[in-house]
Write a structure and sequence with these properties.
The chain is an alpha+beta fold. It folds into two domains: about 170 residues, GAF domain (Beta-Lactamase, 2-Layer Sandwich); about 150 residues, Beta-Lactamase (2-Layer Sandwich), CATH 3.30.450. Helices cover about 45% and strands about 20% of the residues. Strands 3-2-1-6-5-4 form a six-stranded antiparallel β-sheet, sandwiched between helices. Strands 9-8-7-12-11-10 form a six-stranded antiparallel β-sheet, sandwiched between helices. Helix 1 runs parallel beside helix 5.
Length: about 350
Amino acid sequence: MAKLSIARSPAKNRNLYSTLQWQKAVLQLGRAMASKLSLDAVFREFAAGIKGYIPYHRLLISRVNPQNRIQRIFILSQAANDALETSGDLYEKGQTVTEWVVRERKSFIREDTALVQEFETDERLSHMGFHSHITVPLIYWDRVVGSFHLASTEPKSYGERELAFLKSVAEWLAIAMENARFFQETHRLLEEQGVLHQVTSQINILDLDSLLQRLTKEVVNIFKVDCAFVRLSGPDGLFQLRAVSGMKLPAYQGAVLEGHGRSAWILENRKPLCIRDTRKQEASIPKGTGLDRMGFRSYLGVPIVPREKAIGTLIVVSKNVRDFTDRDIFFLQELAAEAAIAIDHALLF
């Protein structure tokens, strides 16, 4: 009677070894990423961890921000002039692979950008010398939180084998991203509470100008913006800059400005004004020609309202286009309320 051999062929043994090796690598990489508390540390761990298994010459990680916009937040590339314009570089064009992947919740592989250029991404990567690319969605609890993209200078660098590995890693990366985001939000909340406590405790100690200066300094640190300042309106309706932190505003330092523009709009409407990109703001909103000339792009201002009368504004500006959140607006309003108390206190004494 012939004996049946159950020995695996060398090819099957190699495949099994490769699969087990990949599973071990994914587990180790996942645990390493999950232990990081900053997004940058998570992304660098990811980039180093996949390097030995998946070839790439370009790595891009994007996230879907609270406004449901796709935001490029991390890039490694060997191509010249291939970098994030800002840490919050947002996609403005349609027909990118990333948009398709996020919308369809599916992975995408392009074997050769020289042969097929269906998306704007294909054309752009081809011009930079990248021939093949793969993009995988990052899904956390059935919610797409972002995507990552790899590109290679060689054609046909990515197939089902690479996709299977990257999809396994993607599960861990999505978890690590959300963990880091939660940690950052918690840290931000503690910072906000600390600043509010400090400002409140010093209202009766510092003079008004010193308090407003301290306030703008804390705003710059928490919001990570280029400049924060306070403008107060006098009885004649003219605005004066009372405190500024971050970048100096030489054009406004000590100047008395006419009562029109964005600050006047905020006082008149008694509500926050948030402009994502001043180059594309609504026509009904006054221009801020001075700030625009200095290169500021994103703007957030709230009214300062002591005793039911709006008399000033607390403003933050950034040279990078960014999306201020509802949380940002609420916190700035809380600080403006403290400024209003300080102004009211100063008027009494």
